[in-house]
Amino acid sequence: MKPVIVKQAQAFLKVLALAVPLLMNTGVSVSASPAEAGAVAHDTAAAVVAETAGEHAGAAAEGAGAGHGDKPGDVIMHHILDSNVFAFEPFGEVELPRIVVGGFDISVTKHVVMLWVVSAILLVIFSLVAARYKNLTNRQAPKGLANAMEALVDFIRLDVAKANIGPGYEKYLPYLLTVFFFVLLCNLLGLVPYGATATGNINVTLTLATFTFFITQVAALKAHGIKGYLAHLTGGTHPALWIIMIPIEFIGLFTKPVALTIRLFANMTAGHIVILSLIFISFILKSYIVAVVMSVPFSIFIYLLELFVAFLQAFIFTMLSALFIGLASAHEGHDGHDSEVAAH
Amino acid sequence: MEGFGFLGAGIGAGLAVIGAGLGIGNVAASAAEGVARQPEATADIRTTMIIAAALIEGVALFGEVICVLLALK
Known about the structure:
The complex is a heterodimer.
Chain A (H helix, E strand, L loop, with lengths): L1 H23 L9 H16 L4 H12 L6 H9 L4 E4 L3 E4 L4 E2 L2 E2 L4 H25 L9 H22 L7 H17 L12 H32 L8 H44 L2 H41 L6 H9 L1
Antiparallel strand pairs in A: 1-2, 3-4
Helix pairs in contact in A: 2-3, 3-9, 4-9, 5-7, 6-7, 6-10, 7-10, 8-9, 8-10, 9-10
Chain B lengths: L3 H34 L4 H31 L1
Helix pairs in contact in B: 1-2
């Protein structure tokens, strides 16, 4: 019992010894020149932020690097937006090639590189898992990575695909699994140091939502035929109302993918903006106390929340894709339509 | 007149959050009530609640995106 208390006291003293000099320094950091402010900001980052969370250190170092007269808003936007430079801040940066073909900028940007990294990681993971499954007999349970992936795959298969699409869900399962793991890994790689959130780019999310849109339309066409599909656009109302119903239903087709797009994009961007804003509070107020009491704990809290949101948004995207496919291919005619309206 | 964009963005962000808060609060309250009445339906209620909350949150985020655009224009 006693050694535990001694150890705890020692640990507490160590923390105190670390914190007190920081607190004593509070008033000193008001600096005259922007360059000096950058240097001080960098020191703060090194002392307080670096040891707590890698990404914060990256962000703060980025802030210090861009700190020659930039406003925090500019630095935050620099972090959020796509660019042709892949920054590894203390070690320099990699300039990515700029390719323009026929007036279209198709250069390989930061987010494109992240998409490739995600694809590569997914290929490696699932090749390994598939190879392990081949070696299993029917009575053996998978272990380790294969087991973890099996839990996720089974969750998507049963709770998302089967629950929302119903019979014939196997056809859509490959798409749903792909989109789930792709979005999940994109979201998670935005939270590691030097990573960028590819799903925080509206082009990426719009592309994913467009896949869902086309699959939904094809499912609807297959389930109802071209006649049923067109009849669906009238909402099952009297012909006199068609002049109102058809435009509404037609717009309704496009609101679903647009909502998917904006939801994923805004969720992933918003979290990063909040984390960076919390860090910049201490730089704006130029105070260590704010950094220790507010910026670091709160940004760690938001960071952990972001971990949850990364899973949640991947799940929601897959779930809503499955739901839309299920509603489009529902065989009960217009019964499915009511719940579709309610879903908005 | 420059500052009115920021004013609008700030007020808009607040209003969007109020709406989303009320909406998600309602969803969570009803879900908690439902689970208390029928604990065996917890899984179904949770799924429905998450979908509804995500849809409400999506609308709130539309508002927030517009506010960010206003503030950064």
